[in-house]
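Subject: Sanity check before I submit

Could someone independently write out the structure tokens for this chain? I want to compare against mine line by line before I put it in a report. The sequence has 345 residues.
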Amino acid sequence: MGKTITTYLIDGNPKGTQYAFISNKICQMFVVPRSNLSYLNTQEKLQKPAFYILLGEDESTKPQAYIGETENFRERVKDHDSKKVFWQKALIFVSKDADMTKVDVQYLEHVAIVTAKKANTFILSDNKQIPKAPNLPEHQQDSMDEFFEDVKFLASFIGCNIFEISQPKAEHLFYTKGRGCNARGFYSSDGFTVLKGSVVAKTMVPSFNWKEKRENMIQEYTSTDNDVLVMTSDKTFSSPSTAADFCIGSSNNGWLVWRDKDGNTLDAVYRKQLDWFFTMSNLLYKYLRLLLSPLWSCRIFLVFYSRAFCLHAGQFRTYNITNYEFCRFRYYSNFSQSYIAHPLE
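---
Independent answer below. Compare away.
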């Protein structure tokens, strides 16, 4: 099911102060850079109970965050501004109806820290302890669980994956071995994710060009078990090749070294299918062009189960036919113009 998100850039800057909410939902997210905390004085909602996340980066391989709750974020952030150095922006989640209580945001803090520690995508050095969940009536707990689902969705919408837990499907798993590694993972729109439990190579070849970063990642994401390095959490890389380089400790073409259980490479599964489609489309396109090239204009009548099909520039376009038996296509010798379907007059 589709969702509609309304985003308002308060200062017109996509990286600046903004707020977002999902249509027909009460959860509203404010994104406030540390450099613009004066904005908090203009929003009454930010002076009421709120759940928040402070985001930043340091020298480590993982980004850093702090998860908290407050009855008045404007006042609470003054303490964070003076005592916490790492953060650059705050995500503040409030109710559009301004009807959340102190107990509600305490429950959100508890659930958020549990989920973030399980995802293990951010360093939570200032959230060492998981706060105890407060007692909420069953109906209110259900409401806050639904609210937290919207929190996760809005955080992901702006590119913050602090709550994202990888859930791969078995049929999409790929494997690689070499130099003592035995890793598995999956490919998605986020990149290539190496899964918890994968064994990675202990050493690197002399020519490896990001040794220091890999050593830092080894410390963050692995532990030694029976003299081998085992991934203690999932790690998503921007490309299959970067993931393979990390696991094997040498330079690799990830599209070729990652293979599924049947021996098919990542390239064959995800890219060769597109190559086949476009090859066949281009062949059909050339055939139609050769067939119709002597004509400047003609009419073609097609009926296939009440659907009309046409091919243009390697793409199929489908037109539904409801009240007409035929559909007319006008062909132009100049193929830069699109086919247009008209009901038969």
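---
OP: Matches mine. For the report I'm noting this point. The CA atoms of residues 7 and 20 lie 4 Å apart.
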